[in-house]
Amino acid sequence: MVAEAKKRVQNLTVDETARELESADVLLVDIREPGERAQTGVIPGAVEAPRGMLEFWADPTSPYHREEFRPDRRVILHCASGGRSALAAAMLQELGYTDAAHLDGGINAWKEQGKPIEDAAG
Q1: Which value, to the nearest 10 degrees, does the dihedral of the CA atoms of residues 36, 24, 67, 60 take?
Q2: CA torsion sign, 7 to 104 to 1 to 92?
Q3: Segments in the chain forming alpha helices (H)
Q4: Does the pLDDT of residue 121 top 90, yes or no?
Q5: Span 31-49, mean pLDDT?
Q6: Which of 6, 17, 28, 106 could disulfide-link to 46, CB 3.0 to 4.6 Å?
Q7: pLDDT score at 63
């Protein structure tokens, strides 16, 4: 399933993701669980949206919709290593998101390349 999702979505490298985050209207979404975030840290500026809540928060017709999620906005998802985020980006496309991508390699690749991480508490 992950391999199929990666064929349908944009797979960004760490450097591509870092460059895109310089734009004011890019939403970086961390779909890991709170325990993972606490243990590993977070990419500065990432919005927390655990994978189990993503559809509810991203769907504009859901009573749980969060305003930062807009189908016309550039959205980059990440998880620990890139599997869950590829699946989630494909799901966002099904919800009508026209510019969803994911960080291939996830936060693990981000950390390996020396990019900034902060404590989950901010």
Answers
A1: -90
A2: negative
A3: 2-8, 14-20, 34-40, 54-58, 83-94, 106-112
A4: no
A5: 96
A6: 28
A7: 97
Contact 30, 49 (CB under 8 A): yes
Active site residue 79: yes
pLDDT of 32 over the 90 cut = yes
pLDDT at 86 > cutoff 80: yes
Q: Is 41 left (phi over 0), alpha (psi -120 to 50) or beta?
A: left
Catalytic member of 79, 87, 91, 109: 79
Model confidence pLDDT, tens digit, residues 92-110: 999 999 999 999 999 999 9
Q: Are the beta carbons of 106 and 113 closer than 8 angstroms?
A: no
Query: Do the beta carbons of residue 29 and residue 49 sit within 8 Å?
Result: yes
Global confidence as pTM: 0.95
Closest residue by Cα to residue 41 from 52, 30, 51: 30
The most distant pair of C-alpha atoms in the chain lies apart, rounded to whole Å, by 39
Beta-bridged to residue 48, according to DSSP, are 30
* Structure tokens, 62: 């859901």
